[in-house]
Amino acid sequence: MNVSFFGELLQSISDRGRALLDRTRERRVEPAARSESIIDLCEHLLSGRGEASGVALAREILTHYGELTTGPRIAFFEALALRFGPDHARLNTAIEAWRAAPTDETAAEVHVAAEPRRQELFRRLNLAPNGTAALVRMREQLLGVLDRRNDLSAVDADFVHLFSSWFNRGFLVLRRIDWATPAVILEKIIRYEAVHRIRGWDDLRRRIDPRDRRCYAFFHPALVDEPLIFVEVALTQKIPDAIGPILAVQRDTVEVATTATFYSISNCQPGLAGVSFGNFLLKQVIEEICKEMPSLATFVTLSPVPNFAGWLKRERAVEGSRVLTEEDKAALQNLDLDGWWQTPKTRDPVREPLLRAAAYYFLHARNTRNRPADSVARFHLGNGARLEQMNWLADGSQRGIEQSHGLMVNYLYELDAIEKNHEAYAEQRAIVASNTVKKLLRATPREVAIVGK
Questions:
Q1: Domains with residue ranges and CATH for the chain
Q2: From start to end of 319-407, where are the E strands?
Q3: Which residue among 50, 181, 355, 380 is least enclosed by CB atoms within 10 Å?
Q4: What is the pTM of this model?
């Protein structure tokens, strides 16, 4: 039995249930009332008990939802927020019962009563054929309006809660992507690449076909032929300090590699943004590579720094900055010049103050949740890596200059230290960094934990 078999089974159940529904539902809904009609169908789905009719109804709801334009779609999200929250009457009763008799049974009833009805609705919608993919797409569309509609954040929180269980690492399957992989998947690898654009089929082949290149993707059984996240790997003889040689059209193939460099990690499903697939994903990739090439001794990334340029711009505007001296600010004015990195006269004065600022950025800059300001750093530190090296002008592409003034970094995955590093970050938000990085700082604020080696 495989995923295809179960998909066909659900389709069969849905078809039979749909026949039952069609005999009981004679009128068709006008497009103008479509979002309200979907809400009525959702109420029917939650109140029903029949499995076959439930699957068919779930499919009908998702079909109608897929036909909504932007306005009715937002109206549907509003209804989810207002009408499918917790049952307040049941919750009040459960709380009173728990206060009168605080037992495991009354506590369990409080838990059940406090759950928004949306969550059970999403579970039942998930039973429809391709229901998981439809719900991931639904959340993607919700995220598109969330920035200006805070009142819908509770709906998003329920998606995240359920997706965190449905997409935890225990369900993910790791596959190698090579030139023999079905074209439907290869096309998606080209489309989903988010770090270093793949420029067509020839470029893709250069990244996955040579003996010193690898690509691995994680899949979920409910999303057939849809990668969730994929990792591109270059097998090298040393830790790379620039992306250009890795992506070069003309290059020499490495015959004997000692280092595996993860140079691109792309999340493929916008609807799963912010949903953790679990820690140690790269450790699983390392274990897979080592089965084939046990001689590999070093495992590093060559990572972008997507938030650095924006942070540095704000810091340059701070009066009395604790990060930048007035001399640093004067030197960094060259960053405002077009093509500053292309000539020694404008490039050289920038190097030292920029690297010092970058060291502070990685070791001390925090977001509002007291986590590292850099999104890529949060991923790798959470996976147990060590911040190993900062690379000056490692990415001279327009995107690299705009995002990080060309800066890239290496995170080192030392197999014997991954769990320890992960725990230090998870428990203390400690930044595990090499002495090379720490020495770039003039002074270290005492309140921030930094672990080095």
A1: 3-166 (1.20.140.90), 170-301 (3.40.630.180), 308-452 (3.40.630.150)
A2: 386-391
A3: 50
A4: 0.84
